[in-house]
């Protein structure tokens, strides 16, 4: 019923609605910064791709590409080769030379006391030119000693800063290695960290990271500062000023900036000039190509290229650094200046006023058109300024605020007559009752029972409608979908409790659809207090198929596990029951049921001491079940707790047995798909080990499930499994590697604070070395884990037997 202004004070209502509208717009603006707002990030990426980027005038790239490796041999190359390149570039007039991949003395990690002749040659060449080397910085491994040893390297980097003033906002980094004599001969050093946003796209460059009491500049910042003759390099909390000829850059909250990314394809229009290393070395490149340029040397192809997603596509790290350097030199950096904040405030006030005016003064069609037009204008204004002036007004929160506030005000008008006029009743649906019934009958006849039920619920409840619903419930029963049938009968009883036996059927079916209970839980003890016998006989034991249920012993993602026994042969079994009719829609139920029994049959053929034996499979009362061997003991997940870790040799022997069991299963063309400690039973007293749940994970391939089931634990899934590609046994070996890592260290190799970051880490990021967590582990174990957790299946162990043999070899080096 509409509430009119006769009952309320008009002025108070107007003030309240205006306050709510203003609050919604302001809240959207405050909560959704450009770094969190996916719509704002999409607009920024679109503007990047369509920006009029000028041809690079300050930078060039010397590419370590496949052609160079074909002529100079596999990386790493002799330092005398790099010395020759430095001499050539210096002679060509290069302003600065930056190697974006680490160079080491004597090619052994740099930890030498006496440089070789090749190393000395490179150091002499570096001292005659402005050569910058990358500082290896990590955010995962703590090494305070390295941080102290880095002080001398960072004191002469091209920035004069006040670390105390920006300590709160500067990201902290940790030096991974500074024992490199080549770093001492470098003109400057710079870090090459590439932070990605939550969606995995690299949009920003860290100007500096704080290491101890020093600031390490980005390679792009250090290289740009190299071109500036002045020694006045100033860094504040808000701004980076590298000199008189380089425009100052406004920094974001984490001391980063947003560069313009050039076209990533070499040779394309507006792409950064890129020349092959071997061509420069053979002097086949014109000297004028490097005169006055800042030259970056790095990998453009292969695994060492460290490619990342950017708004304009995938780029090698050297290309990203070149774009950032060019942006600094030309002042072509995206920013959010003070005048943009003033415009934001004006637009916030304007948006609030426009929404209120449109709500109270304009008809519905005009109101929708006005607000839609305003949203397009905000989109266009933000896009044009991003594309032409590199300025972000960050207007997308205002767009969301307009949509939400307009929707809430429109809903409020459905209940409050703010104009003092009675509202007209909404017209009734043009779809007749007979048409709805005919549609429901058609859907029912096609087997689409769920859609038929929803259609009948829209009909007026009459005797004929109830009759159609009753038939629908009976059809659900025939399909063993007891829970759905109970819902239909319950709906009938709600409107007509005396209609046939609907009420009784609903209660009966709900009881049958309830999870099985232990007979002990269903009945009282035979004797109560005082030792008197119970007045009622014990409840009849629950059964599933021919098996008697004794008690529930566990729950998983796909159902409940019971302890039971086969009364015919008195065999104790574990029974896993899965309610297929509750988890899958009608059109997927048949496929799910067929796949369940097909996979159960395949798993039942497995006969191996390391794999749990499957005795039987069936379906009853909507529950599909598998009866299997009952194993005493604990899940291996108990032994992943740092307080309960098993001895190293024991863990390795268990992994060997699991690898051999998986090798056997893979030879039978059975892939587990969900190897993890929780699916492996171990009895420490008898040393029995069994892999469970073969065949269950294949149900996840049924596309439309009622609850959106996604089987497989993300922390243990291989990159190809996360991407939905076809799998083979090597995916199981990846999961076994994760299990082995967790059993040995008590932590997972891939961790993150969100599912998106976790999946990105598994697909692209290296895992921490196990010895960094547990130093007493043998070094050869890290080699085994590295191969087991390789991102590409081609780089992993080809089969479980090979992996088992590698672990046995490692075990021979460990004292008993």
What spatial order of strands do you see in the largest sheet?
A: 7-3-2-16-1-15
**Rg (C-alpha, Å):** 35 Å
Quaternary: single chain
Largest sheet: 6 strands, parallel
Question: Would you count the extended β strands for me?
Answer: 28
Helix content: 40-55%
Cα distance spanning the termini: 82 Å
Strand % is 5-15%
Description:
A hairpin with a 2-residue loop joins strand 24 (614-620) and strand 25 (623-629). Helix 9 packs across helix 11 (317-330) and helix 15 (433-445) packs antiparallel against helix 16 (449-457). This protein folds into five domains: 10-48 and 340-413, no CATH class; 55-331, no CATH class; 433-513, Serine Threonine Protein Phosphatase 5, Tetratricopeptide repeat, CATH 1.25.40; 519-523 and 539-629, Phosphorylase Kinase, domain 1 (2-Layer Sandwich); 638-811, Transferase(Phosphotransferase) domain 1 (Transferase(Phosphotransferase), domain 1, Orthogonal Bundle), CATH 1.10.510.10. The strands form eight sheets. Strands 7-3-2-16-1-15 form a six-stranded parallel beta sheet, sandwiched between helices. A six-stranded antiparallel beta sheet has the order 20-21-22-23-25-24. Mean pLDDT is 76; it is low at 1-8, 141-145, 158-170, 417-430, 517-539 and 699-712. It contains 28 helices and 28 strands. The radius of gyration is 35 Å and the shape is flat. By secondary structure, it is an alpha+beta fold.
